[in-house]
Amino acid sequence: MKMVQTEEPTTTTESITEDEAALYDRQIRLWGLEAQNRLRNSSVLLVGLSGAGAEIAKNLMLAGLKSLTLMDHNNVSEGDRDAQFLAPVDTIGQNRAEASRLRTEQLNPMVQVIVDTDALESKDADFFEKFNLVCLVNQAYEQIERVNEICRKFNIKMCAAGVYGWFGYGFSDLLEHEFIDEVKMLAPSNSNEVHVLDGKGDGPEAKKRKVDEEETAMIKHTIDFSSWSDAMNVDWSRKGTLGKAKRSLTPAYFVIRSLLEAQKLGDNATLPEVIGKAWKDEVERCKLDLEEQKCKPEDFMK
């Protein structure tokens, strides 16, 4: 019997209470009250309660959100016993999100926990609009691409992650992200001129400055993140990127990329020859030498 959770995250904006300020005291000291208040009013969707998903859920709960929606249409399996610490061992065969609810709630009773047992592909665009952050764990390539397009449409931040044995990946699309950087400066007392320190502190200029003349300026930076589609479909053979591919692409990139490609084949996704061919195609697409790769096609047969 299919279970569907109809509960919705609350949408009202609230300030941190005295009890919450006491509970989150250490992290407020780390990133400030304003940041904690933004967390306090954030609703997050987490899709995929695998072992990695359980770890992400734990960290989100302890951070102090407003609400966390656990979404998974799969059931707890024998394979979850060694990694999925939110689902008790006696819940094998039960829905994985529902089985994880109690232990998730116990991590932080101040956070609203919502369970949704639908499949990700059944959700239309409007479903995601109420969230501030969407996290996808071990989801299919096409679904990550679809949800990322939806999130960009509604200006929602998104993360994706996957674990395949000893290999794993993490992807973040924070859209346009602003952050503040502290820069040390020197302002001579007899001049309006300001000098930015080079960080070495061993030149004659630095030795002449007084300690009380040192100032700290707050510089704002903006980073534009790439979409999932752009990040996963870089033309590494293009002039200017081939050299970067040889210098910076880890061998694990091709393994992850081949596993994501193999997922598109459904039941055949775990066949060694399928994964090996996907790996070979990806290396060749990047115009790299197969013989120079640490991972070899025969490694997928082991």
Automatic annotation (TrEMBL):
* Alphabetical list of Gene3D superfamilies matching this protein: NAD(P)-binding Rossmann-like Domain
Q: Matching Pfam families, A to Z? A: ThiF
Q: State one molecular function term (GO).
A: SUMO activating enzyme activity
* Metabolic or biological pathway: Protein modification; protein sumoylation
Question: Where in this chain does the record put each THIF-type NAD/FAD binding fold domain?
Answer: 24-169
Q: Which domain of life is it from?
A: Eukaryota
Where does the UniProt entry say this protein principally localizes?
nucleus
Record GO biological process: protein sumoylation
Spell out the subcellular localization from the entry. Nucleus
Q: Which GO terms describe its cellular component?
A: cytoplasm; SUMO activating enzyme complex
Which terms are listed as keywords in the entry?
Answer: Nucleus, Ubl conjugation pathway
Assembly behavior:
Heterodimer of SAE1 and UBA2/SAE2. The heterodimer corresponds to the two domains that are encoded on a single polypeptide chain in ubiquitin-activating enzyme E1. Interacts with UBE2I.
The record's annotation in PANTHER family points to: SUMO-ACTIVATING ENZYME SUBUNIT 1, UBIQUITIN-ACTIVATING ENZYME E1
Question: What is stated as this protein's family in its record?
Answer: Belongs to the ubiquitin-activating E1 family.
Q: What is this protein called?
A: SUMO-activating enzyme subunit 1
Q: Which organism is it from?
A: Plectus sambesii
